Amino acid sequence: MLKKFAAAAMHLLFFAGVVAIGAYWAVRIFTPAPTAAPPPLPPPPLRDPDAAAASRMFGKVEVAQVVVAANIQALGAFAAGKDSSAVLAVDGKPPRVYLVGQEVVPGTRLASIGSDVIVLDSPGGRQEVRLPPGPACH
Asked: Looking at the domain that runs over 72-130, which CATH code has it been given?
């Protein structure tokens, strides 16, 4: 009986070896070839620390300085209620179209547009800028 048990154990051991070898080669054959890893991303560019942001982070509260444009010229306007717009030249820069409510310069917004004047709203108060006279119609 011991002889039969030893023979069965030996067959089981060889069978386990064959299964292990077959599993090893199956994994080797059916596993796809490794691909090259993508190149690493470049590090983000270094920036100078923002002193104002750092001071706010630690509790320092600063009053924002109001930047007032020295020269705002109105070149034209389109009055259509809330969809009104104006063509403005700010400090000698090329003219741009601004919508009502849009910021013209930091702290100054286009408040409203009338028939011959546009109104700018800033922390220092309201400022009116006259529109150039329109063409004379005959």
From this structure: 2.30.30.830
Strand order in the sheet with 72-78: 72-78, 85-90, 96-99
**Which residues does the chain have with pLDDT short of 70?**
61-70, 134-138
Domain spans of the chain? 1-31, 72-130
Question: What is the Cα–Cα distance from 86 to 78, expressed in whole angstroms?
Answer: 6
Burial 35-72 (b: 16+ CB within 10 A, else e): eeeeeeeeeeeeeeeeeeeeeeeeeeeeeeeeeebeeb
